[in-house]
Amino acid sequence: MVNRPRDAAEGAIVLIVEDEAIVCAFLAKVLERAGHPVVCVETSADALERLADNPSIGLLITDLTLPGIDGLELIRRAREHRERLAALVVSGYALDERGLGPIGFLQKPFSAHTLVEKVRELLTDPSRR
């Protein structure tokens, strides 16, 4: 059985920023099966361009360690223009939120179910954005 989004907020586009193709493919496959449209990019610069061009992006999922701009700085920059953008960091490292406001965090490894539930939480709970 495929879990479909429960409301319009959960149908928002999910932007995944991950420099490892296999990880991006896993995240995208899980979220697409759950009914979420997904866009994958490899760099923070590409992510910032996509966010500027597409107001339908409702959630930014990023790795913590990326070449150039790291995941936390990416969230900070994205929220300069889209203050209420939901964000989720996925990483094998511990997270220091550094004043970014509410963000989600998943420690690698995690299950597909855990990912889908965290995305649902972030997209439906305004206090998490």
Top-tier CATH class: Alpha Beta
CATH architecture: 3-Layer(aba) Sandwich
Low-confidence stretches: none
- At CATH level 3, the topology is Rossmann fold
State the helical fraction.
25-40%
Indicate the topology:
Elements: E1 13-17, H1 21-33, E2 38-41, H2 44-53, E3 57-63, H3 71-81, E4 86-91, E5 104-107, H4 112-124
Parallel strand pairs: 1-2, 1-3, 3-4, 4-5
Helix pairs in contact: 2-3
Please summarize what this structure is:
By secondary structure, the protein is an alpha/beta fold. The chain is about 35% helix and about 20% strand. α1 (about 20-35) links the parallel β1 and β2 (about 40).
What does this molecule look like?
The protein has about 130 residues and is of the alpha/beta class. The chain has a single domain, classed as Response regulator (Rossmann fold), CATH 3.40.50. It is built from 4 helices and 5 strands. It has a 5-stranded parallel sheet with strand order 2-1-3-4-5, sandwiched between helices. The radius of gyration is 13 Å and the shape is globular. The N and C termini lie far apart (about 30 Å).
Pick out its properties:
single chain, about 130 residues, alpha/beta, Rossmann fold, 5-stranded parallel sheet, 4 helices, 5 strands, globular
